[in-house]
């Protein structure tokens, strides 16, 4: 049965993210966008621009509501009482280190779940001293968007994208929605049935891989075994994209391979500073993979799979770490994103709505058994961006923490820099700033390993 006119059923994976959430484990992702000031860009004007542009994004006017059918399902529906002022706030920080204060505040704001009776998103304008830089913190529920779609939605606040969107609306008007017959054509029904049979077979294979990949033995570091506190801490790091390209030219592989190797080295350095022994088993990272086709980033529903990767923390040589990561990722890619335990999101996509409602408590605890941390890359537009004439100088993506997880690392490249956002459980990783510093140090170490100079000593 179709949902009522004007509504859209949540896709299975979106429904899973919706049910996985609790007050102590909010399932939203986000980004901290930092801007340089421009003449005349007062906070009141910036707030007005944010409100106007956010209100013009149709997806940001949708909220989640219950439906009778399918049983256990939910649907997106337009919020008839939508008021953008409920979603945008202005927060002023004191004089001092603006980035340190903005990061600390962003961590606190990321702790707070999004209200379920409203469209699930928030924006915060974080302002510093008059005439100085400012930031915009964006929070989107994972049911509303995956990383690529979050970029497509959030990009609507920027001057360049808003101008293009406005021109298209003026030139073409509202895009036509093709009529859909119900019930579908019998031939389409036959194709759908065959497709579902194939999906069920794939889900069984993924399910078996998940069981085989589960680990019940000792974990790699005490920080990853700490119980979830519901607190959040944010730290950032900045890497030179030019150096990243030079390392890639010299060693091969992908930029993502290099960044994964840097994270492995940073964990090794950070454990040494904590006086923790090297783990018996390397920590395992979940590396999300988008299943979106090029050009359809705005299509509804999360479209994700993932790879599982053992980060070579026990390997002392940075170049050997990079080669180990590259070989492991090559094996993952050869198998494809729809196979293996990392494709647990694909498994979730095959389950009926009722299974998500009642299975969420069990599934919420599965993350800790499968992986130790999440490491994801978020693509950004290559062109220069601004907000009301204020240039964007950095954008730090923030990934959600699954239940039982203490650390998520997200990376994006913009303006010649790789911006790294680290989100952690505040009690499990109170020294997150040191881990962020270790990311920068290990990146320098990897570059130095190619020349044999300027090495950064390991404690």
UniProtKB/TrEMBL annotation:
Catalytic activity as recorded in UniProt: an acyl-CoA + a 1,2-diacyl-sn-glycerol = a triacyl-sn-glycerol + CoA
Enzyme class: transferase
Gene3D superfamilies linked to this entry: Nonribosomal peptide synthetase, condensation domain
Pathway membership: Glycerolipid metabolism; triacylglycerol biosynthesis; Lipid metabolism
Keywords from the UniProt entry: Acyltransferase, Glycerol metabolism, Lipid biosynthesis, Lipid metabolism, Transferase
This protein's record includes keyword Lipid metabolism: yes
GO biological process annotation, one example: triglyceride biosynthetic process
InterPro entries cross-referenced by the UniProt entry: Acyl_transf_WS/DGAT, O-acyltransferase_WSD1-like, O-acyltransferase_WSD1_C, O-acyltransferase_WSD1_N
Enzyme Commission numbers on file: 2.3.1.20
Gene Ontology CC annotations of this record: plasma membrane
Residues in O-acyltransferase WSD1-like N-terminal domain copies: 10-258
Domain O-acyltransferase WSD1 C-terminal: 301-446
SUPFAM superfamilies membership: CoA-dependent acyltransferases
GO molecular function annotation: diacylglycerol O-acyltransferase activity
Family: Belongs to the long-chain O-acyltransferase family.
Protein name: Diacylglycerol O-acyltransferase
Lineage: Bacteria, Bacillati, Actinomycetota, Actinomycetes, Kitasatosporales
